[in-house]
Amino acid sequence: MNHLLTIAGAVAAHARLTPSKLGVRDSRRSLTFAQWHERSHRLAAGLRGLGLVKGDRVALLAYNCIEWMEIYVALADAGLVAVPLNFRLMSPEIGYIAKHCEARAFIVQDELVDRVEPLRAELDAAEGGYIAFGEGVPENWARYETLIADAPSNLLPVEVFPGDMSALMYTSGTTGRPKGAIRSHEGSTLIAMATALEMGFTREDTALMVMPMCHANSLYFSHTFAHLGATCVIDDRKSFDPEALLATLASERVTFTSLVPTHYIMMLGLPETVKSKYDVSAVEKLMISSAPARRETKLAIMEYFRNGKLHELYGSTEAGWVTLLRPEQQFERLGSVGREWAGSGPIRLLDAEGREVPDGDVGELFSRTPYVFDGYWKNPEKTAEAFRGEWCSVGDMARRDAHGFIHLVDRKSNMIISGGENVYPSEVEAVIGAHPGVKDVAVLGIPHDKWGEAVHAVVVLHEGADATESELIEWCRSRMAGYKRPQSIHFMDDADMPRTATGKILHRVLRDQMSLKSASA
């Protein structure tokens, strides 16, 4: 039985109330709410027919496409747990996550099957648990459309409750190993309600999902519009095309989209003759997230989207939405990420001893949200570290001004945000450090006009080694996702590497050195 506090229950309700209304579409096909419910319900039955039972984890690997929306609803219907995988991950990274969560099935787009195929011998999937969709499905994989068409019709419904796990969202940490954040159906629904309440969305909206559907951003926003009975349009291009985005905004009469600063910069950098071809007057609300936006970028957004109101959010997979900078605050509080979302508790900024820091001082940011995650999968130590009572932290450092607005300062994990993607230096350092010529390495982000930050490595070679920049970048190519690979490498003598008294590399000092070097180049 689909509880109304699940996305499956919401889509089923809209299938009854507005069956012929457009629910979701991409460039290949569209689904009314009735069709969406029917296909997802049959997919749920097909997955259960493979022997999957409530609570089993199902790994998902695909580019943006309409299938994501069918699958999310189907898994909720069957009581199965979605494990969205970033399509940029390589086989070793996918293999770690699949083993860690004990995935019992994979649903994979045909173009990405080669990332999973080498792992089959070492994974304990269900019989028939390798499912692919697209035109080029290999013979040894089950076909997604066949699973839907041949779904059994005599299965008793699964009881799914609000507190049941709906997704495991893997996010990297300072250890370099991804951690699975446990999200419940209730948590996802509460985020949807808070989003609709705070931003004034209704069933009349049309939202364009550009951010990867495996990310929390698109997961939370797409669920919001599904719960409302609004329409979602999935941008299914494999790479960002700024003019194509404008064309979609115009042709679909989109009222909302969420983008990172890089997207806006690329789009607004198009020639005026191109931008003037598209009528984007339907756009009423815009979200900017994942990295700070400059004043000139915000001004350009508001100049082009004359009917749109700009919002800026800060959040995390674990805590959900944490702060919101509202339209009327964009320039009054420039540089701030705003204040807490509707329904959230006050934000606490704590020092190392857990004491509140005064306004203006930097502390670790702890938030209390009604939709916080339920802990890290099989990792009680990291779960305990993330909480102080009901308050949750992902290690971000911030200060509060005299008016209560939050300003992010740094990240304890030295996380890099490049083009909206989170890059954790420890992961990259582990790969580069495995090269036989490398003695030590530090990875950091350096300013980049287009991507916000670029991944940069500082390498100390073993005495007598002669590895080159191109050699080390090539070393990384097959071992990690493209957005994590360093775009540049600087070689340094061991004696010049800034370190603490115990030998740890001082990333902040090194970052300052590299910024000065870049500025003087």
UniProtKB/TrEMBL annotation:
Ranges that cross the membrane: none
Domain of life assignment: Bacteria
Enzyme Commission numbers on file: 6.2.1.3
Pfam families: AMP-binding (PF00501), AMP-binding_C (PF13193)
SUPFAM superfamilies for this protein: Acetyl-CoA synthetase-like
Entry keyword Ligase: yes
GO molecular function: long-chain fatty acid-CoA ligase activity
AMP-dependent synthetase/ligase domain ranges (all copies): 13-377
Keywords: Ligase
Domain AMP-binding enzyme C-terminal: 427-504
InterPro entries membership: AMP-bd_C, AMP-bd_C_sf, AMP-binding_CS, AMP-dep_synth/lig_dom, ANL_N_sf
Similarity field: Belongs to the ATP-dependent AMP-binding enzyme family.
PANTHER family linked to this entry: ACYL-COA SYNTHETASE (PTHR43201), MEDIUM-CHAIN ACYL-COA LIGASE ACSF2, MITOCHONDRIAL (PTHR43201:SF5)
Name of this protein: Long-chain-fatty-acid--CoA ligase
The organism's taxonomic lineage, starting at the top: Bacteria, Pseudomonadati, Pseudomonadota, Betaproteobacteria, Burkholderiales
Gene that specifies this protein: lcfB_8
